[in-house]
Design brief:
The protein has one domain (about 5-70). About 60% of the residues lie in helices and about 10% in strands. The chain is built from 4 helices and 2 strands, in the order H-E-H-H-E-H. The protein has a two-stranded parallel sheet. It is globular, with a radius of gyration of 13 Å. The mean pLDDT is about 90. It comes from bioreactor metagenome. Keywords: Iron, Iron-sulfur, Metal-binding, Oxidoreductase. GO terms for molecular function: anaerobic carbon-monoxide dehydrogenase activity; hydroxylamine reductase activity; iron-sulfur cluster binding; metal ion binding; peroxidase activity.
């Protein structure tokens, strides 16, 4: 993945978007950064990075995230 595409994904997370990055970017070499972007940042911005190359698993994760947010808003 191009560095610019990774940075664009991080900006989307900063704006509160659930963002899928594929192919998995170079950030996976920094475990603390991966933990921040895939878990902890959601409590700060509402956004989150999803890493993965399996389209079925990614689609399931996106659906689960949407359902979680809907339930939190009382829509499910």
């Amino acid at each position: 993945m191009e560095q610019k595409a990774t940075i664009d994904g991080v900006f989307a997370v900063a704006y509160g978007a659930y963002t899928h990055l594929s192919p998995v970017p170079f950030i996976t070499g920094a475990p603390q950064l991966v933990d921040l972007l895939t878990d902890k940042v959601e409590g700060v911005t509402g956004g989150k990075v999803a890493l993965g190359d399996d389209p079925v698993q990614v689609a399931n994760d996106i659906e689960a995230h949407i359902n979680k947010k809907r339930k939190g808003m009382g829509l499910s």
